[in-house]
Amino acid sequence: MEKIASFKAYDIRGKVPGDLNVDLAYKVGKAIVKYLNAKKVLIGMDVRKSSPELAEALTKGITENGADVYDLGLCGTEMIYFGTPHLNADAGVMITASHNPPEYNGLKFVKKGSVPMGYDSGLSEIEQMVLKGDFEVEGVQKGKVEKIDIMNDFINNLKQFYDAKKINPFKVVVNAGNGCIGPALDTLEPLLPIKMIKVFHEPDSNFPNGVPNPLLPENRQPTIDALLEHKADLGVAWDGDYDRCFFFDEKGNFIEGYYIVGLLAKSILKKNPGEKIVHDPRLTWNTIKEVEAAGGEVVQSVSGHAFIKQKMREVNAIYGGEMSAHHYFRDNYYSDSGIIPFLLILQLMSEENKTLGRLVEEMIAAYPCSGEINTKLENPAAKLEEIKQKYSDGKMETLDGVSVEYENWRFNVRLSNTEPLIRLNVESKGDRKLMEKKTQELLNLIRS
Questions:
Q1: Is residue 423 part of a domain?
Q2: 215 falls in which pLDDT band (50, 70, 90)?
Q3: What span, in angstroms and rounded, lies between the C-alpha atoms of 113 and 90?
Q4: Is 205 a catalytic residue?
Q5: 33, 68, 133, 255: least surrounded by Cβ within 10 Å?
């Protein structure tokens, strides 16, 4: 079956204009209306230079097939997740490539009620409609376009997740990375008792301070510098479309998303005992321990937003967390948010009267991890097979890439869905030296 290279596991993504361009966006706009029989479609975009032209082409395709467009303009992905059910739209499309380099862009889709649309749940059908030119809807009147501002509704909806009266007057460094979150933080700021120290706050498509991807160690320093200079209590940095947030403790240490999953799960279960928590297979031991100790039930899912949300709906999980800093909430239409974890951590630090460093120090000591290490390879799939052969004596699982478990350490390797990368995660039981040794051993094999 013929395929289009930019159609990935859970979105359309690629370099502009080679992999993704106005012609493809126009056809996809038409196909989405026909496939979903949509009458109203919500669209929004991130700050990338190519986003406005893709939005225009997408809008043209949608309206020519008879559907109306609600246009949010510049926004975060989670505003699409909120806005689609809030406005009772039949679909939502976010134009974003999140943390990818500036020459990339993408289209991320949700159906009615913000049910995600991945390759196995609609995108493959859209792809075939585009390839066959089977996307026209005959005999319809052209749809209308309405520019709409739902920022206040979006921010007010977040109040169900936190209580501002229970948050201490912390000093917090917030680094928008010149992505989209600046305007949302400005709207949220008057509702919180904290003092925000703003870094790279203005949206800027030139990304003058680098692509907003705090997973890259070189992108973390500005947050750390501001935190130490202002003697702040906490640092938070977001990716470009702010569906992920990353935390720094009071000493400027970057806290892996893995430990934030354990922390949020424990905090949520304290108020909601017995609930189910979904996690990904990359790093697991700490999450399992924290959830079971708090009386919850763990459920494992393939990584990626479409898969996690689907699993959460299947088992009615209250929360889902990925070590890549995606956090999903049942009461947020099962969607991921980069703002809710920020609010929950502020409240947790206040209620426990502990710094973030103190809240996670025992977890870090009990299950030290490598963090995700990416390696660009020409043939990552062949390397994955080589790794399976070498570590065939361990307890192996292939739900998502390859996970191998030994008594005192485990690892996961998987292929990126969006780039020619192999991703490695290693953890151990309380033995940092072992974790570091095994990480190096695996990297030597991967890069040989």
A1: yes
A2: confident
A3: 8
A4: no
A5: 133
| Structural tokens at position 40 | 């109203």
Q: What is the pLDDT of residues 100-129, one digit of tens each?
A: 889 999 999 999 999 999 999 999 999 999
Q: What is the C-alpha separation between 321 and 399, in angstroms, rounded?
A: 17
How many structural domains does the chain have?
4
- Cα angle, residue 98 at apex, residues 341 and 339 outer, rounded to 5°: 15
Catalytic residue among 98, 114, 303, 337: 98
- Identify whether residues 135 and 111 lie together within a single domain: yes
Domain around 381: 373-446
Residues 195, 174, single domain; the answer is yes
Average pLDDT over residues 316-327: 97
Closest of 175, 350, 320, 147 to residue 252, by C-alpha: 175
Task: Tell me the pLDDT of the chain averaged across its residues.
Answer: 96
CATH number of the domain within which 333 lies: 3.40.120.10
Q: What is the CATH number of the domain that holds 388?
A: 3.30.310.50
Quick: pLDDT tens for 383-434. 999 999 999 999 999 999 999 999 999 999 999 876 789 999 999 999 999 9
3-state secondary structure of 365: helix
Does 180 share its domain with 231? yes
- Pair of tokens at residue 343: 């609010």
Report cis status (omega within 30 of 0) of the bond before 101. Answer: no
Report which residue type is found at 167: I
Q: Kindly state whether residue 165 falls inside one of the protein's structural domains.
A: no
Predicted model pTM: 0.95
Cβ-based neighbours of 362, under 8 Å, separated by 6 or more: none
* Whether residues 134 and 192 fall in one domain: no
Is 357 within a domain?
Answer: no
**What's the CA angle centered on 60, arms 204 and 82, to 5 degrees?**
60
Q: CB of 427 within 8 A of CB of 368? A: yes
| Residue that terminates a domain, selected from 116, 150, 184 | 150
Quote the CA–CA distance of 430 and 368 in Å, as a whole number: 6
In whole angstroms, give the CA distance from residue 125 to residue 122. 5
**Domain closes at, from 255, 288, 322:** 255
Instruction: Round to whole Å and give the CA distance between 211 and 99.
Output: 7
Mean pLDDT of 343-350: 98
The answer to whether 247 and 255 have CB atoms below 8 angstroms apart is yes
Q: Is residue 83 part of a domain?
A: yes
DSSP state of 28: H
Residue 383 in contact with residue 377, Cβ under 8 Å?
yes
